Amino acid sequence: GQLLFTRQVGSRLAVWKSDGTPAGTSEAFVLPSELDGADGLTLAGDEIYFIGYKAGTANVWRTDGTLAGTRKVSEGAYVGVDSSFTRAGSRVFFVAGDGLWKTNGTLAGTVRVRELPGDTLTDLTEFHGHLYFFASVQGEMALWRSDGTEAGTTRIRDEFRPRDSAGFTLNEDVDGTLFFVVRKIAAEPEL
After folding, report:
1. Which residue among 46, 65, 144, 175 is least crowded, i.e. fewest CB within 10 A of its CB?
2. Distance between CA atoms of 18 and 6, rounded to whole angstroms?
3. Which pLDDT tens digit goes with each residue over 168-183?
4. What is the pLDDT of residues 27-37, one digit of tens each?
5. pTM of the model
6. Contacts from 132-135 at CB under 8 Å and sequence distance 24+?
7. Cα separation of 111 and 64, whole Å?
8. Which of 179, 147, 182 is nearest to 164 (CA)?
């Protein structure tokens, strides 16, 4: 594994990679000069997705690790710094201000999957080609699944209540099973 981060020297913004040692830390590539900053670098398959900033506006960008292969894939979608990018099948999912989005790595192929205004989406996790995540809907936490379509993005379990629970975590596929943990208030975590 490599840690990816950005470093700006003067007007030059670059992505760096590190294996955690001085000898293993180096500049990977330079980002387009039009960007003021970048956050949330996430490796998704052979591509890196990130949030690029220009004059206070945030958009999703993708890169193959070259300046020529770096391009903006969202226009006008609000993306918070805490957005995570998760590949499920041929799609990369992310959270924008008004819900769940997906992209195929192009501007035309970046669309909202389902509007979930005011909701909190967390723990985006791929499992057998689908996306699983938690969403807080009208004050209740629910486990959701998405196949990348609006109709195929549905709640699959919705009995978690904030008064009973302090946090939720989806865990990776373990021997063909997706586990999630619900931490109850004043109680030990349960599977």
Report:
1. 175
2. 11
3. 566 666 777 887 776 6
4. 988 999 999 88
5. 0.82
6. 132/170, 132/178, 133/100, 133/170, 134/168, 134/170, 134/180
7. 21
8. 182
